[in-house]
Amino acid sequence: MMFGVEYECRDCGRAFRVDEEEKREPRCPGCEGGNVTIRQARPLPQWIMRKKEAAPT
After folding, report:
1. Which residues sit opposite 9 in a β-bridge?
2. Where are the domains of the chain?
3. What confidence tens digit (pLDDT) does each residue in 13-36 have?
């Protein structure tokens, strides 16, 4: 599993991830801007949770 940080561009709103081993400054892949913020973790939507619970094991 690769660890990283999720960012969101303050200019265009695109979310993206920078993996830990990349060791690069976060820049938006959409608009190539540097005005980014760390994206806050959010709970998964309920429809995804229901689908995971209903999946056969």
Report:
1. 36
2. 4-54
3. 999 999 888 888 899 999 999 999
